[in-house]
Amino acid sequence: VDVVGLSLLSGAHMTLLPRVRKLLDQADRPDVLLIGGGIIPQDDAARLEAMGVARLFGPGAPTSEIVAFITERWSANHRL
After folding, report:
1. Global pTM?
2. pLDDT at position 79
3. H or E element: which one contains 14?
4. How far is Cα 68 from Cα 62, in angstroms, rounded to an integer?
5. Which of 3, 27, 52, 80 could form a disulfide with 33 if both were Cys (CB 3.0 to 4.6 A apart)?
6. Residue 44 in contact with residue 13, Cβ under 8 Å?
7. Looking at the predicted structure, is the pLDDT value of residue 63 above 70?
């Protein structure tokens, strides 16, 4: 896969997102774009981004915004 996206409403974002990033890294897949969504406090968002979560999208984020981010990031990392 090129992208893994997790939408969390359980409050487990500080457990699940770092764990997925770690598993991707252990699988020698640091290239996989990890994004998340849900209600995530700003302090937690900064910590998650420092851990390698590429972007977090809040409630109501337009799908077009998410697609644009993925497309832009993918294009920057892959030459056609």
Report:
1. 0.89
2. 62
3. helix 13-26
4. 10
5. 3
6. yes
7. yes
